[in-house]
Amino acid sequence: MINHIKAPASFGAAALRPVGSPPNPAGGERVQLSKHDGFTAPDGRVETGTWQSTPGQFRRAVMDAEFSHFIAGRATFVADDGQTVELSAGDAAYFPPFTHGTWIIHETLRKTYVVWRQEVSA
Fold first, then answer.
1. Domain boundaries, the chain
2. Whole-angstrom Cα distance, residue 50 to residue 83?
3. Element (H, E) at 34
4. In 3D, which of 45, 23, 1, 16 has the Cα closest to residue 111?
5. pLDDT digit string (tens) for 57-83?
6. d(C-alpha 53, C-alpha 55), whole Å
7. DSSP 58-122
8. Which CATH superfamily, name and number, covers 35-116?
């Protein structure tokens, strides 16, 4: 079945559900994370959806492979290996499994994503 994520940039707040507020490594205000579920494979190894973060900083928590298309906002991702990537609406990025680093969200960031899980817990 085709998973069609229709107009994710125009989802209202009611379409997104809160998914947490991770600690800010800089000690400032915590970001608010939310998402809209898309598709999850029956075996749990592939997931799609739309994700959003308010401005601030937090450590990347997803350790699986991820492809993201950024549809709104602006951010910087600073990988622990020193690579710095500036991302804004219209950009896309692939994060290999076990990519560690810090998100710095400058303007509320929204993306669609596909995650490929390395292992699925029982």
1. 35-116
2. 25
3. strand 33-40
4. 16
5. 999 988 899 999 999 999 999 999 999
6. 7
7. EE----SEEEEEEEEEEEEEEETTS-EEEEETT-EEEE-TT--EEEEEEEEEEEEEEEE-S----
8. Jelly Rolls (2.60.120.10)
